[in-house]
Structure formats: C-alpha cells, structure tokens
Amino acid sequence: MTTEYDDGRLGRARVSDTPELTAYYDELAELEAGALWTVANDIEPWYPQPKSVPVLWRYRELRPLVRKALDLVKADDAGRRVVMLVNPGRKDVSAAVGLLYTGLQIMGPGEAMTAHRHQAAALRFVHEGTGAWTIVDGQKLKVGPGDFAITPNGTWHEHGNESDEAPVIWQDGLDIPLVNAHDAGFYEVHPDLYQQPGKVINSSLLTYGANLLPYGAQEWSRPYSPLLAYPWEPTYESLRHLARATEGSPYDGVIAEYTNPVTGGSVMPTMGAHMQLLRPGQATRAHRHTGSVIYTAAKGHGYSVVAGQRFTWQQGDIFCVPSWAWHEHHNLDQDEDACLFSFNDFPVMRSLGFYREEAYTDNGGHQPTA
Amino acid sequence: MTTEYDDGRLGRARVSDTPELTAYYDELAELEAGALWTVANDIEPWYPQPKSVPVLWRYRELRPLVRKALDLVKADDAGRRVVMLVNPGRKDVSAAVGLLYTGLQIMGPGEAMTAHRHQAAALRFVHEGTGAWTIVDGQKLKVGPGDFAITPNGTWHEHGNESDEAPVIWQDGLDIPLVNAHDAGFYEVHPDLYQQPGKVINSSLLTYGANLLPYGAQEWSRPYSPLLAYPWEPTYESLRHLARATEGSPYDGVIAEYTNPVTGGSVMPTMGAHMQLLRPGQATRAHRHTGSVIYTAAKGHGYSVVAGQRFTWQQGDIFCVPSWAWHEHHNLDQDEDACLFSFNDFPVMRSLGFYREEAYTDNGGHQPTA
Amino acid sequence: MTTEYDDGRLGRARVSDTPELTAYYDELAELEAGALWTVANDIEPWYPQPKSVPVLWRYRELRPLVRKALDLVKADDAGRRVVMLVNPGRKDVSAAVGLLYTGLQIMGPGEAMTAHRHQAAALRFVHEGTGAWTIVDGQKLKVGPGDFAITPNGTWHEHGNESDEAPVIWQDGLDIPLVNAHDAGFYEVHPDLYQQPGKVINSSLLTYGANLLPYGAQEWSRPYSPLLAYPWEPTYESLRHLARATEGSPYDGVIAEYTNPVTGGSVMPTMGAHMQLLRPGQATRAHRHTGSVIYTAAKGHGYSVVAGQRFTWQQGDIFCVPSWAWHEHHNLDQDEDACLFSFNDFPVMRSLGFYREEAYTDNGGHQPTA
Amino acid sequence: MTTEYDDGRLGRARVSDTPELTAYYDELAELEAGALWTVANDIEPWYPQPKSVPVLWRYRELRPLVRKALDLVKADDAGRRVVMLVNPGRKDVSAAVGLLYTGLQIMGPGEAMTAHRHQAAALRFVHEGTGAWTIVDGQKLKVGPGDFAITPNGTWHEHGNESDEAPVIWQDGLDIPLVNAHDAGFYEVHPDLYQQPGKVINSSLLTYGANLLPYGAQEWSRPYSPLLAYPWEPTYESLRHLARATEGSPYDGVIAEYTNPVTGGSVMPTMGAHMQLLRPGQATRAHRHTGSVIYTAAKGHGYSVVAGQRFTWQQGDIFCVPSWAWHEHHNLDQDEDACLFSFNDFPVMRSLGFYREEAYTDNGGHQPTA
Questions:
Q1: Does a structural domain hold residue D113?
Q2: C255 inside domain
Q3: Do D15 and A354 touch (CB under 8 A)?
Q4: Nearest CA in chain C to D234
Q5: Domain for residue C51, yes or no?
Q6: What are the tens digits of pLDDT across the range C13-58?
Q7: What are phi and psi of A174, to 5 degrees?
Q8: Which residues cross the membrane (chains A, B, C, D) (predicted)?
Q9: C chain contacts of residue B15, beta-carbon cutoff 8 Å
Q10: Among all residues of chain C, which has the CA nearest to that of D233?
C-alpha cells in the first residue's frame, strides 16, 4: 500500500480496541448508536470499492438456457420470462453491475404479456427475432434486431411476439436495484390487463424526424424521451457518418448517445444508452469513471480489457464495467467495424454530482493483462 | 369603436389641451421631460399596433430584378448582392416585417464573397441553383434548393457559388432590425478576408444524425445550434412521416420546427424556423399571435389570408404576417401537398414573455375577405 | 476614421449611384424592394449607434413641475399622473434611453388610481412620501423612500397614497418602448375598476425571507419574481455587509442585483435592477457594455462620466447610459458612502445573446472629459 | 392481504419450484445468471419496502455518551469524534435512515481537526456550544446553536472549537450511504493537513444578503450553494414572518427550505434541509412520500407519529422517517411554537423522478396509534 492510501496516516481513523472502548461501544449499541471511527475508513474509502466485478456473459452459452425457459414456464406465470444476468458480487440485489439490472427475455411465437407499470425504468435491445412488439402508454411499436427501445418509469407496458415462427429474444435493462436502493419502488398491474393501443404503429418514430420538432412537442414535460424507439439502421448509418466527421473519443471510438429529441438529454433520468463504432482494428485507450456500464456486442467481434482482465466478445455477448474500473475496447476485425451497444447510470452520476473520469496514461493507454 | 376599446373610458388618459397645460408641456420640454398622459394611449395601446402591413412578394416578379443585379454591381463592391424586401410600413429600419429582415441574394457562377461576422444572426433558404456553398466558422457546407441553413450571430461566414453555369439565388433572413432596435450591432471584416475551411464538407450534418448526440456534444455551450444546415429531402420526408402520425395544428397543418439537436430548442436565440405541410386541399383555421413571420412557398401553390387580405402564392413567393394579424393557409392543389417554409421571432417572444395566441372562432375559423 | 472602421474597405458596401442604378432602385421600389448595398453600412454598423444620448435629469428641477401636475390634472383623467423623462434622441418612442421608459409619478394625499394591466412590465423606486401603496395581483404592498417594487407584465395593479399630508413621488420604470418595438402591447382596464386586496399587507415580503423558500414556492412558474418589493433598509444593510466581504466590481463598486428568490435570476424577464454602493471617495474605472441603464442617486452625491461627459448628481437625480457608452462613477463624499439605484435591459441582452462588455484601459481606466 | 396487493394475481410472478426448475436454476447459476421470476415479486414490490424503521434518539440519553468520547479517544486518532446514529435495519451501511447518515460530533475546548475532503456531502446542525468554527474551501465560518451549515461534496474542510470552556456538540448529516450505494466514494487528506483561511469570517453570509445577488454571483457554476451557513436567528424570524403570511403546509406547518441563493434550489444536489414551525398546539395531518428524512427538534416539545408509532420529542432529540412511512407532527405546547429542523434526500428523489406523495385521508388525517 502506498502512503497515499495508508489508513495509518493522520487524517484517517486509527483507534485500536481496548476493553474500555469495547464496553463503550456496547453502551452505544443499546441506544441504536455507534462510534464513527470504528467504520469511518470503510465507509469513506479512498476511492470507490464496488462489490461488482467484471463479468462476460456469452450469448452462445446463455441462448440455449433462455430458449429452455419457453418450455419450463408459462409467460403468464412468470410475469416476464427472463433469464437475468447476476453479478457474483451483487446477488443480494439482483444487479448485473452496480445498481443496474439486465436480463434476456424470450417470447414465443404469438405470445403476449399482460400490461403493468412500475417505478423502475426499462430499456430493450433486441438480439433476435423479427416479431417483437411493445405497447408503451398506448403506443404500439415494432422492434427488430439491433433496435433500442425504452419503457420510461411509470409507463404502462406490455410486449409480445407476432411472429408465427421464431421466438424473440431481447435484452432488458432496468434500474430496479437503483429504485430499491432508494426505497422508491411501486408496481401496478393494468386494471384491464391489456392496453388498447392507438392505430398508428411506431407513431413516435414518425413524429420525431431528423432534427425537427413537431407542433406540440414544446408541451412535453415528462422527464424522459417522447421518442420510444431507435431502430438499428439509422443509428448505424449515423455512426458511419459521424466517423467521417470526427475522430471520436480516444476511449470509446465513434460513440453517440441516444437522446431525448425535446431536450438533447439522456433518454431517461436514471439510465442513458450509447452505440459506439470501433473502426477496423481500432484499439481504444483505457479510462475509468464513476458509474456502471453494461455493454452488448451489437456487431462484429473484439475484446475489452476491464480492470486488467481480457474479455473476448462477439455479437450478442454482454459484459459489464463496474464503477471506477479501467476499461478499453479492441476491434479484432481488420476489415469491418464493430459496434457496442451500452447502457449506464451516467444520468444519475451527473444529477448527483458524482461523475468523475480519469485517463490511463501508462503504457500508451493500455492496461497490462495477466 | 366598441366600449371595450374606448379611450374615453375611466382608466385611460383623457386630458384635453388647455392653454395652461400647453404652457406646462413647454416647461417640461425644456427639461427633456413630458406629460405621460399626452401619449399614454398611444404607447400603451389596447392591442399591438404594428406599422408592418401584410405583403406578398412574387418570385416571378422579383427574379428578373435579382438577376439584373449580377450585371449592375460587383459582389465585392456590394458586400452582398441582395435585393431586400421592404415592408411599406418599415422602410425606416429596412424590415420586411416587424424586426425581421429578408432579401434575395444572387451569386454568379464561380463567385465568392469575403468573410465577415456580425451581431445579427442570419439564415438562408435556397430558391435556385445547385452550386451554393457557405463557410461558417470554418465549416464548409453545400446547400441546394429547399435547404435551410443558419449563420448564427457572431460566426465568421462567407459564401459562394461553385457552379460553372447557373447563378444561385437564396433568401437571406436576418434579425438586423432587432439588433439595431436593441443598439447591439457589431460588424467585423475577417482579418484574412477569407477563412480556411476544414476538410470535411457538411461536417455538422454528418455529426448530428437522427436523435443521437456524439461524444463531445455535451460540451457545446453556445446559444445556437451546432447543426448548421437542414437539407430539404429529410425535412420533407419527416413531414410526410409526421402527417401519418398526427393531425397537426389546426392553424398550420403538419408543422415542425428546425431544432438545435443539443437542446431541442430553436436554432438561434433570436429566430426560429419551421417547415409546414398542407395536405391536398387543406384549409387551416385562422389564428393570431404576437411575433412576426416571413413565409416562403417551398412547394405547391395556394393562398393565405392575412388580416382579411387574400394572398395567392406559388413556389418561391414570399409573404409576411405582422404581429397579431389573423392568418390562415389554403392548399389549392387537391392532389399534392404544399409546403411553406417560414422564419420568425418567436424565440424572442418567448424569452421576453411576450408570446400570446388566439384562435379565430367565427365563421368556422375562416376570415371574411374583401 | 481609422482603417478599422473604414467603410471604403473591401468587405463593406461601396457602390456609388449611377443613373442606371437609380433607375434600378426605382424598379425595386415598385415591388416593395430595395438594394441592400444602399443601406448595408448603416444597418450593419461597426458598433452600436444608439440614437439615445446621455442625459442627467435633476430632481430639484423636476420636482416643482411634478408637484404642479397635482393641480393641473386629475389622476382619474390622466390615468397616471406622470412626468416622463424623454431622451432627446428618442422622443418618437417616449424612451428615456434605448427601449426603457422612466417617469416621476405623483399621488396626492388620499388619492387612489384605478386598476389596469398591460404587457409592459413596470418597476417603482420611491423618491419621497411615506403613504404609498400598490396592489399587485391582489397583494397590497406599502413602500417608502428608497424602496424598490415591481409590477411584472400582465399583473393587475393600482396605486395610491394613504397619507393625509404629503404627496408621494415615485419613479416608474417601464419597458414600454421595448414592448412596442416588438409589437406586443396589450392593455386592459380592470373590469371592476378596483381590486379586492388580500388581508395581509406585504405578504410576499413576509414570505421570502433570507435564503429560505417556503412550502409551495417550487410551484411558482411565472417568469418573474413572486417577491414584489425590496425595502431600502435591508438592501442597504446587505450592501454594507457585502462591502466587508468583497472588493466589488472595478466598474461599479459594491453592486448587487435584486433577484427572484425562486430562481436567482433577474426580477423580470425584460428588466433587471441593481443597487450599488460607492465607498467614500471611490472612483470606479470605466467600462462599456451593450444594454441601456437608467440610474437614480439613492444616497449621497458624486458624479458619473458617460461618453466623456461629466454628470454631477445628488440624491434623487436620474441619468442614463446608452448602450455601448463608456461610463464610470465617482463618490464625491470622502466620509460617507453613496448609493446608485439602477435598472436596465440586461435580461434582454442575455436572452437574445446580445450582451458584450469591454473595459476602458487607457489613462488608469478614466475617460478624459471636456 | 387485499386483492390489490395479491402476489397470486395474473400479472405477478407465481411459479412454484419443481425438480426440473431447480435443476434449471442450477444451470443458470453456473453462468452467473438466474430466473427473474424467482425474485421478481421481491425486487418489484407493490410499494416501497424500506429496511429502515422509525427511530427516536433522545438527546438526554446520547449526550453523556457523546461527552464520554472526549476522554476515550483523541480527535486526531478518531479522524472525527462522532457518535453515529444507526438504524437497526441499516447497520450494514451505517445509515440512520435510507441512504442518509447522521451523528453527533463533539469537539473539546481548543480542539482543531485536520482537513480532508470527500465525495460525500455534509451538513451540520449545532446542538450546543458557542465556540464552533469550520473552514470550508478556505472560508472560515463560526456557527452557534441552531445554526445550519453545509460542507458540499468535494470541498476541503476542517473544524474546531475556539471556546476555552465548553465543548461543542453538533450534528453531522452526510450522504455517505448514498455515495457508497453508487460506488462513488473518494477521500483525500489535505496535503498540508490544514487550510489557510481567508481573512473575512463568515464571508458568504456577508455576501448573500436578502434577495440580492452580488457582482460575480452569476459566474457561480458549482452544483451547490455558495452560501455556506444559515444562522438560527434570521431563519426563525423568517418562519415567524411566514406564519403571518401563510397557512403553511397541512402536513408540516410553516415550513421553508434552506436554499441556494444563486438558483433557488436545494443547498446541495444530494441533500436538502428545512426548518419548520409548528404553531402552539398545532397538529398537522399525516402524509407519506418517497425519500427519507431525519428530524431534529430545534425548539419546543411535541410528538410525531411515524408509521403509527408515537415519538415524543423535546429540543435536541432526533428521529427519522423512512421512505413512504406515514407521518404527522404535534406541538404539545399550547403557548409557544415548536421548531423542527430536518434534512432529506428529496433532491435525489426529484432528480431521478422518484418523488411521490400521498395524503392520509382517514380519521381527519391522523393515524391511529397503538
């Protein structure tokens, strides 16, 4: 341990137990009290000490188990038929990393779920299947592979798969652990069990065109995006265009955030989402920041180094970066670009004044790996 | 005059001149003072009393004169070779309506203007010619018919026409009268006379894709849009999509505002701009609002009724709506949609708390015309 | 003329009249059009060219005339009995400077005016008399010498003087010329001629204590301060405290802005107001900025140099600083501080992106005077 | 259980274990995955299920133990000599309620602590002693009983007691559990161990007077209040004034939030603080809301009913209200008002869109108590 982080320094708590103190602590405990100095160094660490660890979930390993769930449980009994990804350090709160939850949901051909709403906000990233639909506060949306969609907190929602043939597997991202950490969870089943959607499919996609706001948009006052889905094709095309105009980020390549068109801000107040493009053969430099991120390989293959561990990914794989962990990304394809979808709690970090970022400066910006 | 607007009422100034008062007014004048009641009813009118009147400028009438300017003055001598449209009531301030200026600028094949910057903000709407380019703060943009582009206040800018054959005619919109009304005008010639543009053409168009914000966009802190051009095709396509999702405004049809992607707000703090689509045969209802508007027919033909006067327009025509004048729009084509581009001072109305709007309720929402 | 501001330079309009051009201009005029280059240099000046000039209005000169109005016109006939201060360069719009209006209003003992409301925003600064009251949107306020109060745009208001003995003279500041420049003026007489005030006098003063916001204040959504009056004593005390904590501004001494406690912003969207304290003998350095200011000497005596002209003031005197005019302030008392109240259109300058400021660097920051 | 909250309903997870499923869960566990339906009802509860319970800490019981700490540990060894108040349901994170920490800190005559800074934000409420001082980012403040002060996140701070005679006991409030829940904690010892304070004591108190913002305040861009202390006397006086102007809140009596004078918002982005006055004999009605609150009796005596439990308090006592717990307050003195200081995480609730509130409508707004 360096002097910098030495708990024996003046300025840190360094009181040893004595019989007298132990007796004193007992007295305090009787009054629902305690001595700060017995825990001070633990609860005020030098830098973040997440219990979350870096994890890679391979889609080819998870997929058979996800499909198995189709036979094992009825959708109506499960509520949602989801295999959740659980960080070994966060089993107590069912988090994939930090205060974020993620899982793979499967809907069989023709299935439809009942409608509910909850305080937790949700987002979807479609892995496979072409029949997926969702109804969010009465607006019916159809989404396909690579599409990103949101179910902002408090909105009624239900999903289904209108395909006759293939199941849909999409990834859910929710802030359930965040909501629970804040003792703010509510849940309601829709009084009619199902919503009556409006006639126009994908109406918010039709409404929020490129850099134009329609009549009435100024009245939108909810804290989330009125645009509820962001299809893959224009997203990918935008990144390709962006790659012609900019170098991008040294840490993330050509990266853009899905935004609320009414404010230019994040899609929801608790979670943001990005798509990033790594140029053929690109190796980004490492950085770290507060805030947790869940990545999904949307295109191509490569590897990321997280806290010194190398995680090799291909399309469909999911991995996480805990708060303050160094991370960098490598596209292993020398001819094709690779894309990573990700979602995070950066909006929370910024709202609460917690965001902090640092570049890895040694070794040309690349972490040594074991 | 109705009782409602009777200046003889208690609550209005109603002092008649007397010799004693006249002498008093002279005394006041010697001290650079005056009696409020002599002007109160004039300077605090019951409702807005713009000096601007509704005007239609026909493109087919103006075009020959605009082209004539090519031969009459050199671009270098004119600064900009522009035929400005001047409201009969606002000749003193060279305004087309209210505090807005507009004009038709022509650039001959191969011409290039010198660079300058000014406090006034400018916007462009291209009428004809395919060779137009503009460099705004080092960013080179190419614009064609129907495209909308901005030159925010204080940005260096220069323009030209790279065509070998045809001149470019575009419409300038500026807030020059607004800036002057506020005694806030500054002007500078570029020290090198010409800018050195960056290599990437249309870089802001490449950068601000559909509902995505790139890395670094959060740092944008200027009060105007970093996206500097809005081409016709995606704008028109967006309106067509919008028309499928919404009824639109009863007063404007399917209308959308060009927005700053970083904030969702107007493109500039002093001027906003819209494109609106009138369905085949659509006749909107009349309303009025504070704020002035300059319209340009971008597609199709129709007529608008402004303050009871009917103005028939076809593509390229320009007309204005003074503050608080009733207005409504009619698409005369029963098969094709029509489009009106417009720009306005609504951002000012909103910033200053001056915006007010009222629907015309008589006669099914349509004004009687002479 | 320096080269910098030479209208003969490349980059400025420099077209001389020819018979051919004169004929062309006539053709344009027939179409309600003109050639930009004939006016370009005038409407796009190198720097602001206000028509307003610096003026000092001496209270001891104005006061007798203001009092005379008591006898000459009935309050009910005058609407308001006000001697307005008119800038020689702005008589056409009844402005004291720029787009700001000011005047001295007198109310005799026991007088009460009828209620009205208008788009223009108003503010008051009390010169003399202890009986003044105002009712603003149902809230009755009592104000005395040195007090500052606001009547935000659109609020019903009426005034009076409950003293048995002495008249009240207060200074009105309004944005009437601004409202009219924007064609946004509305005016209404109260349907009942008089409001029914709430029981609690000065309720907003009781409500907005020091750096505390009461229950419900978060719901305040109007664009102006819910606190309607700022008495002299705590204002002066605050400046005295501030003088102990800070050097203040090199251009203004110890200066503070009256603020909307709910936002920390200016009291109204179109006008801001300040009180500033000049230490005994203090001579501030000169600067200039866009935006117009009307000053009132609230305490002490001194002089200000505006655009090279020296204006000596004592308590009650009023003077103006046009946009972009150099100005500096001198307290002539070596033992006592002096205070200047002022109001301005800075909120407009900032909203519209027009604010610009520059320090006078020659001669130790002091302008030469004739 | 009512039908409303029945986990057996369609729309909830209701899958029973089978051998097949158990085997499946094991397979999932090997991949760091799980079945959502096994935990869904727990992690998406019908309404908040805080582990925190209501607690009252009596000052007369805690005080002897707090004083005892003076002898038991040296300030330099303890870091800070604090008896923390620990909720029985939140011992794992050292929280008094929800994600808030509180404790009673004692500083002996003449003591001074070393300087540090951390991501966690802190606030102080002084219980006893007149010698307390704190230096926050170089600004020295003196605080006495009833004063509220803040140490915003990331600011260097150190404290001490300049009295020769009596110790200081103040209450610390921190968001340590919040910071840790978000994996965002940082801590630094000051490189020089002690700061060099500026010469002016209480400079921010002198700077932020009543509803005035000084020159330069517009440049303040940090997410917390530049005003660092709010003394008892003007706070209490403000509430007394407020009581004359308003009924106050039915749930809280006459209540006001300490605010950031530059924005009108909460003092810090993670914690807000209020002072409330209960009129003689006043019994407020019950309500509940998301967000946790820690109350300290600042004046008088009374009782509060929290989640049906009655807690009788007198000056100095501290109690907590967990998220979504019904609560109401009663002043037991029929002649004197009583005051409750409190701090909370409402700014977080609002930023994240989690704030929700509900009135207790039965029984005249009063909870039955055991």
A1: yes
A2: yes
A3: no
A4: C210
A5: no
A6: 999 999 999 999 999 999 999 999 999 999 999 999 999 999 999 9
A7: -135, 160
A8: none
A9: 73, 77-78
A10: C210
